[in-house]
Amino acid sequence: MTAATRITVRGDDPYDVVVGTGVLAELPGLLGAGVRTVAVVHPAGLPELSRPVCAALEAAGYEVVSLPVPDGEDAKSVHVAAELWSAFGRYGVTRSDAVVGVGGGATTDLAGFAAATWLRGVQVVQVPTTLLAMVDAAVGGKTGINTPEGKNLVGSFHPPRGVLCDLATLTTVPRQDYVAGLAEIVKGGFIADPTILTLIEDDPAAARTPEGEHTRELIERKIQVKADVVGADLRESGLREILNYGHTLAHAIERVEDYRIRHGEAVAVGLVYAAELSHLDGRVGRDLVDRTRSILESVGLPTSYRREAWPQLRDHMRVDKKARGAVLRFVVLDGVASPARLENPSEELLEAAYQEVAR
Ligand SMILES: NC(=O)c1ccc[n+]([C@@H]2O[C@H](COP(=O)([O-])OP(=O)(O)OC[C@H]3O[C@@H](n4cnc5c(N)ncnc54)[C@H](O)[C@@H]3O)[C@@H](O)[C@H]2O)c1
Ligand SMILES: O=C(O)C(=O)C[C@@H](O)[C@H](O)[C@H](O)COP(=O)(O)O
Ligand SMILES: [Zn+2]
């Protein structure tokens, strides 16, 4: 066990992100007063993650309902959400009760969405167990599910009551899933915290493991970036869009792949595309694009995608949430830690940037 760090997310309903190793005992303290029943939503195939959570809650006197859901992205569907709503009804989850989401970002997105919609909103505490979920998905209150038309198209802003990141859970995360989480950390480096970039550049091999010398610092720095942004702009009326850097293309790739590519891997390609757009629009030098590619490749993330997919990708980008009518809007960079918006880029620019990531 290590001493816990508490990162506070400000806003109308502030909450803490608790980070440490062996910190599960902190979980009951994150629930609000008056909770009796806790519905624990978790991937069906990972009972070793949900069992200790349920046990800690039972030991603290809560009535615990264990609700297994499909693994990964398959959980983010209206059908699975409907099954959770039925279960909440059967087990009598009331407005004074709580949902706890345990798992990767897909599970916490679904659990948050189910909590946001049940009885028009019950409290949720997130217990992320992947790198990506700790540094991004579980923090900030964006919840969502996918529809046949695209990624996260249905959802709500529903901040958690608290977030518990037990770093001990990271030791079992498959290596490729762990590395995928680094894409969101690198994103945080480019939009806001350049120290993240130098920490990875100094020792990329260490960054790839939960045991790395700077792992905890990388995690806490990225959580701080996210906390600062969502604390100032929960509903993405402006500033929060910077967290979407790289995501316009990434979500289109995920849709084209029918979600059989990891979110973080698609984000890695999307980060290179956004850097290329920034360069071709005359905002940054080629060095920033090269640095983006080099840092992502140094940890084993992809930086290119199929050339022939462009027409399909372009079509899917239409439903990006930053679009306004037919006008596409991108987060780009004017430099490291200097995000900006690119509105209504020409088709030529969009395609020219894609040619640079195409293989
Ligand atoms: N809401 C947000 O702000 C936000 C931000 C970023 C990403 N996301 C979403 O997060 C999702 C991606 O999250 P992810 O990368 O965690 O993927 P994921 O949830 O699919 O998890 C990856 C895999 O790891 C398994 N797993 C989880 N914890 C484990 C553990 N401790 N040990 C072993 N296996 C474990 C999962 O069951 C899954 O098979 C996407 O749906 C993405 O859209 C949301
Ligand atoms: O928190 C945010 O805001 C983000 O954009 C973080 C992203 O990493 C995340 O993938 C998010 O779910 C994308 O949001 P969307 O609104 O484009 O679906
Ligand atoms: Zn993301």
UniProtKB/TrEMBL annotation:
Catalyzes the conversion of 3-deoxy-D-arabino-heptulosonate 7-phosphate (DAHP) to dehydroquinate (DHQ). InterPro entries: Dehydroquinate_synthase, DHQ_synth_AroB, DHQ_synth_fam, DHQS/DOIS_N, DHQS_C. Its EC number is 4.2.3.4. This is 3-dehydroquinate synthase. It comes from Microbispora oryzae. NAD(+) binds at residues 71-76, 105-109, 129-130, 142, 151, 169-172. Transmembrane segments: none annotated. Pathway: Metabolic intermediate biosynthesis; chorismate biosynthesis; chorismate from D-erythrose 4-phosphate and phosphoenolpyruvate: step 2/7.
